Amino acid sequence: MAREEKPYRVYRGGRAKGKVPTVRPARVRTSDEGKGGGVADYHGPGTSTPKRARWGRRIGIALGVLVVLLIVWAVAGWFSLSSGVSDANKRLTPDAKSALAAQSGLLISHSTIVLMLGTDNSALASRAGDMHSDSILLLRTDPSHHRLYYLSVPRDLEVPIPGHGTQKINAAFQIGGTELAIRTIRDFTSLQVNHVIVVNFGDFKELIDALGGIDIDVPKPIRSNRFDCPYSTQARCDKWPGWRFEKGKHHMNGERALIYSRIRENMLDPSETDFTRGARQQAVIDAVTSKLASFGTFVKAPFKGSSYVKPLTTDLSTSQLVELGWVKFRASGSSSVHCRLGGDFGGGGTGAPSEDNPATLAMFLGKSAPQPPTGQFDPGCVIGHPLQ
């Protein structure tokens, strides 16, 4: 019977107390092993955790804490925004909601058309009841291509208003509120409007201030007529030349952006029309929606979420507004398509719709390539910047 060899231990520099281990320590290879080198020393139990492992654990804990904070921050922002959205939903009448076409699927994955009506009521007592829609803008989302389409409708365009004959299209809001405005736009354009947002430009400045201002690229110098004089005396106002905007990028607070959107006459360019004013309003709305979809707005949401929707009346829910913001965030501004309908405004005042409007509506729906307007009051579309 063969003798069983007992395990043994090699000692260096003398004897050591304790039992002989029954299992040989695992060999730790070194880069020199097999090349004439030896085997790395075994340090035995009690070896401390390597620094790399400790730092990895700390980074993991820090990331976990950051994720939890982001979740808490997002939930707080959601509830703050929901409070304001609930009030905005209550301001929309039930008949206006019933005039809207049902939304197909989620906004982040399905195209939708949003009607944006801008009101800018005069502070004069004689015009306190004037509730015409000062700006009429349709927004179509195309999430699959990360593109947005804008369609500006001239407020002085003469169209049939259901039950009220042919009048300026902006009179529909004055006569029957949001519900009649939706029906008039739907019948005139044959577009199915899924959602509506009514913006009071007078209160819009509060939203812009809550966002910390917006950036507007002014395409050419402007000197307006003497409207909304900032001085208290008539003598001072008579000497005041009007509001000025230099060409280039401007960071505007709410009051400045409101003035920019209200300019009807540019003394430096008499060729400007109401279409130009509509383009300025479109630029302001586009800048606001871009700021709403920014990361900085998300950071402020727990504190200012309800104020973001204070000037709005809408059917959009909190989740739909967030989805719309995400679609806007993903869309490229350089590929956005800006369209306008046209009419015969050669004599000033009201105008009959252009025969080329159906072709522009096809461009707005993405059924044909964008083509720019061929005349001052003609319809058309351009890519990347609002029509002037």
Write a structural description:
Helix 1 runs parallel beside helix 8 and helix 6 runs antiparallel to helix 7. The protein has 10 helices and 15 strands. The protein is globular and about 85 Å long. The strands form 5 sheets. The protein has a 7-stranded mixed beta sheet with strand order 11-6-1-2-3-12-15, sandwiched between helices. Strands 4-5 form a two-stranded antiparallel ribbon. It has a two-stranded antiparallel sheet with strand order 7-10. Helices cover 37% and strands 16% of the residues.
The value of Rg in angstroms is 33 Å
Shape, principal axes of CA atoms: globular
What share of the residues lie within helices?
25-40%
Question: Strand arrangement, largest sheet?
Answer: 11-6-1-2-3-12-15
Number of strands: 15
Overall mean pLDDT: 81
**CA(first)-CA(last) distance:** 106 Å
Pattern of helices and strands: HHEEEEEHEHEEHEEHHHEHEEEHE
Could you say which structural class the secondary elements and strand pairing correspond to? Answer: alpha+beta
Residue fraction in strands: 15-25%
Low-confidence stretches: 124-128
Number of helices: 10
Largest sheet: 7 strands, mixed
Strand-helix topology:
Layout: H1 51-90, H2 94-98, E1 113-119, E2 133-142, E3 147-152, E4 158-160, E5 166-168, H3 171-189, E6 195-200, H4 201-210, E7 214-218, E8 222-223, H5 234-239, E9 244-245, E10 248-252, H6 254-262, H7 274-292, H8 295-308, E11 312-314, H9 318-330, E12 337-340, E13 343-344, E14 352-353, H10 357-364, E15 380-383
Parallel strand pairs: 1-6, 3-12
Antiparallel strand pairs: 1-2, 2-3, 4-5, 6-11, 7-10, 8-9, 12-15, 13-14
Helix pairs in contact: 1-8, 4-6, 6-7
